[in-house]
C-alpha cells in the first residue's frame, strides 16, 4: 500500500474527500480541517492499495491538488486492517504487478542527478573492476558490479523515452556519459600509479585471463544477457523490490567493460580496448531497449486490467480544476485516462 498525505485548499477539500471516499482502492481516510499552514488548507491522510494508486494520483492532479496544495506518498510495510483487505480485493490486479507512474518517475528521476556521490561510486567501482581485470579475479568484478550506480540513469532513461520527457533523457545521458568518462579517466591514472608502484604491469593484461576475458570478447549472448537483465531490473523498479536489483547489477557487464577499456588504453592495448567498448555499448543499449519494452508491456497490460474496474468507478472522473486563479499558476496538465473507460 501507499500512504498519502494530501494538502488541499479548503474550497476543494470536499471534492477531494468525495473522490477518495468513493474509490474502493482507498482506505483509512482521515480529514484534519485547517491543519496545513504552508500551503494553507486541509490535510487528508489515506492509504491506497498499489493497484489503485495510479488512478487516485491522476484524479488528484485533475483536481489541481499538485499545484494548489501537495501530495506526498510513502510505502506501507505492515497493514493490519479489514478495510485495507477489502480495498485490495476491490481493486483489480495485484499490487506486485501494479505500475505507479508517479512513483517510478520520482524514483528514477532522482538517479539522473550528476551528484558527487554518483561520480565517486562509479569511479570507485571502475577502479576496483580495473584491478580485478588485471588480477583475473571475478570476485572483484562482482563487487564492482554491485557498487556501480549506473542502472539508476539507465532506468530513468527508459522511463523518459517511453513517456518522452526530453529533459530527463538529456540528464540521464549526461549522467551516463560524464560518469563513465570520469571513471575511466581515473582508472587510467590509477593503473599508471599502480604500475609505477610495481603492483601491476602490462604483462598481466596480456596474459591468459580465463575468468575475465569475456569482458572484452562480446558476442550475441552479450546482448541476450543485457536484455534479460534490463527486463529484470525494470521489473524490480516497478514492483518496488530492491532485492532483485542486486542480482541484475551482478549480471550486466557495464562497469567491468568500462574498466577494461581504461586499463587497455593505459597500456596501449587498443584491440582489447575496442572490444571492451563494444561490450559496454551492447550492454547499455540492451538494458535501455529492454527497459522501454518492459514498461510498454506493463502499461498496456495494466490498462486492460484497469478496464475491469466497475463501470461506475470508470465513469467517475473529477472535473478539472479551474484555470488560473491566485492559487493555481497556469492551466492544469492533461492526465491520460488509463482506466480504459470514458
UniProtKB/TrEMBL annotation:
Residues 317-342 are annotated as: Disordered. The lineage of its organism: Bacteria, Bacillati, Actinomycetota, Actinomycetes, Micromonosporales. InterPro entries: DUF389. The chain crosses the membrane at residues 116-135, 141-162, 174-200, 220-238, 245-270, 276-297. The keyword Transmembrane applies. Keywords: Membrane, Transmembrane, Transmembrane helix. This is DUF389 domain-containing protein. Residues 319-334 have a biased composition (Pro residues). It comes from Plantactinospora mayteni.
